[in-house]
Task: structure prediction
Amino acid sequence: METSTSLFWKRFKAAPIVGIIRGQSLEVVLKIAKVYEEVGLTTLEVTMNTADAISMISILRSEFPSLNIGAGTVCNLTDLREAIDAGAQFIVTPIIDETVIQHAVDENIPIFPGAFSPTEIYKAWSLGASAVKLFPATKLGVEFIKDVLGPLDQVKLLPTGGISKSNIKAFFEAGACGVGMGSSLIDKKLVEAGDFKGLKKHFKSIKNEISEYING
Result:
């Protein structure tokens, strides 16, 4: 029998990109999610500092049952509890909060805590992180990922911050298990223009960049 966690990973591996929704209205987010799903992208994160994030997560879960819908910018237990109660299928944090990580692990919910240094990365992984969000990724660079994964080859890294169509493949080549993408994926100009056909084409072009790293 397929568990919710195994289903999450099956979807994630079919398109290992976390699309980050921040500061958008529900009306716009529903349109984004529709084209996101149509091109075969699977995993969307709604940050908790987005207005009405909780109801947005709940509605996205209901409207798009084939997507992984999660909560980002989860910094404390209150945020975590609200996100899980709304139906969040995974949790992303910008920091290492041991209590938040432990509660997510106890409830068998994938969690990607944010870390910067090798010590922070290893600590997050040791606490039970499903993958470690390396942030900000472009400040550290692709070589940093290769260097860290030399001694820490069991750790899954999810670089986030500054990932774009032009460099996404290099991060996968360096050993990243996936990437987080915000404005470079959810293109602000296309969204503001209401050009969701153009956004769909943009999503597809980014997905095509990592076609050889997609399972499924």
